[in-house]
Amino acid sequence: MLVMTGQFHVLDQNGIWQLLEECHNDRWSCDVHLGLKMDVFADHMPQAARSLYQCLDHLLTYNFTMHEIDHESYRNIIVLKDAFAYLYYVDGDDYIDMCLTITDPAQVREIYKKCCAYMMVQPVLMEPRQSLGMEKFGYRDIFFTSNNYLFFLTNDLEFLLPDEVYTSLCQLIDEGKYPNATKEWGRRIQYIWYRIIEQGRMKIIMPKNSIIRYLETGCFYLTDMN
Fold first, then answer.
1. Distances (CA, A) of 197 to 23, 55, 160
2. Domain holding 114: CATH number?
């Protein structure tokens, strides 16, 4: 659990979201409670909206809950439960000028408790929801519940892959080449394509260049996998 009581645009300007992305937190999800003043957010449009969508798009293992902040009783605090607390000062240009780091367990626990109590009574602007069929690796199998499809394919031809490719993929997963994926995930995609080919109606649009590249190189991409 990560609680941030400062202004969204200030955290963005100081590269906080990039720091979170560089943590490479792929193994567990982190709940982030973030304060946001709507009038200040509006004053920094469209950059503020762009940055917000980048957070949601890039930081997939961080579950953001936005709270509307009318006053700043506990402003400029970042606290990670049972880990650390940052208390920072922002200068007139919205840059973090000084920062105090607290790691004493008792103090961190007290700061965390007060910040949570403060944030939890603030109105919620946005909160995460579990999406049906969303796999940890980013594959939405709920999409494949229709019987009629029109695919526009730029690189992918995975529905034509022979079984040997999926077997090889599972071996690479076992070897740790794709740490976010599992063999169950790979087999699930394979069975989905089986079902579509056997039961569904498919129309396919594919650029000529993609077909030529595939015929010449024999190489294409399965999501993140070459």
1. 40, 37, 10
2. 3.30.870
